[in-house]
Amino acid sequence: MKMNFPSRYEAALTLFEVAVVIAILMVLALLLLAALGNGKRKTSRIGCNNNLKQVGLAYRIWEGDNGDLNPMGVSIKNGGSMELVQMGDAVSTFQVMSNELSTPKILVCCGDEPGQGDTSRTFATNFNALSNSNVSYLVGVDVTNEINPQLILSGDSNFEIGGKPVKAGLLSLWKNDPVAWQPPRHGANGNLGFADGNVQSTTTSGLRAHLVQTGLATIRLAIP
Questions:
Q1: What are phi and psi of 132, to 5 degrees?
Q2: Where are the domains of the chain?
Q3: Which end of the chain is less packed: N or C, by CB atoms within 10 Å?
Q4: Helix or strand run (H / E) with residue 222
Q5: Peptide bond preceding 184 in cis form (omega within 30 of 0)
C-alpha cells in the first residue's frame, strides 16, 4: 500500500503565514495588557473611593463631638487644626482625627502605593509618624462645617494646573483654573469627597464643573 506524505512545501508554514501568526499574537498580547491595566485602574479607583468614605465618616464623627465643626474650624489650642491647615498643612488634620480614622493606612490611595509610579507613597506606622509621604488626600481648608454640601472636603491630591503638578502646601484654586487630574494614579480620573459625605469619581471636566458649582471664586486646599 502506497502512503502519501505531505510535501515539504505543504507541511511547513510560509514566511507570510508565520508573520501573520506573530502579528495576531502581538495584538492579543496588547489587548490583554490593556484590559489588565484598565481593570487595575478600576480596582484602584474603587479602593480609593472606599478610603475617602471612611475619611468622610471620620470627619462626621469628629464634628459630632466638637460642636458640629470640622478640625479646620477649631483652633489648635482647642484640639483642632485651624491655624496649621491654613498654612497648607494637610497632615495635622488627619492627626487630629487619629481616633476616628483608626489606621493611617486608609490615607494612602491604592493607586499611589509603592511601585505605582513616581508619586508613590508609603504607609505610616502610626499617626505620630505621619508625614506628607504617607498621605494621598487633600484637605478642604475652608470646610469648617456642612453648610455648603458642594464644598470639597477631601479627595485625591494629584492635581496639575496647565500641565504642571501642584506642589505640597496651600493651593488656592480659582474656579476657572485649567486644573486636571495628573496620571498615573487613576489615569484621567480622580475621586472627590464632599462636605455632605458624598464621594464621587470624576473626570477632569467633572472636576472643573465641581469647582464652579461651589459658588466660590477661590477654593483653598491643603495638598500633602
A1: -55, -30
A2: 14-223
A3: N
A4: strand 218-223
A5: yes
Radius of gyration, CA atoms only, the chain: 25
Check if the beta carbon of residue 29 is closer than 8 Å to that of residue 37.
Answer: no
| DSSP one-letter string for 115-162 | TS-TT-----SSGGG--GGG--EEEETT--SSSSTTSEEEEE--EEET
Nearest-10 Cα torsion for 117, 207, 93, 49: -70
Cell numbers found for residue 87: 498654612
CA distance 170 to 57: 24
- What local confidence, expressed as pLDDT, does residue 43 receive? 46
Q: Is 169 helix (H, G, I), strand (E, B) or coil?
A: strand
191: three-class secondary structure by DSSP: strand
Q: Output the pTM of the full model.
A: 0.78
pLDDT digits (tens, 9 = 90+) for 8-65: 545 566 777 777 777 777 776 666 655 444 444 444 546 789 999 999 999 999 999 9
- pLDDT attached to residue 29: 64
Nearest of 142, 172, 167, 145 to residue 157 by alpha carbon: 167
Q: Characterize 82-110 residue by residue with b for buried, 16 or more Cβ atoms within 10 angstroms of its Cβ, and e for exposed.
A: bebbeebbbbbbbbbbeebbeebebbbbb
**pLDDT at residue 36, as a whole number:** 47
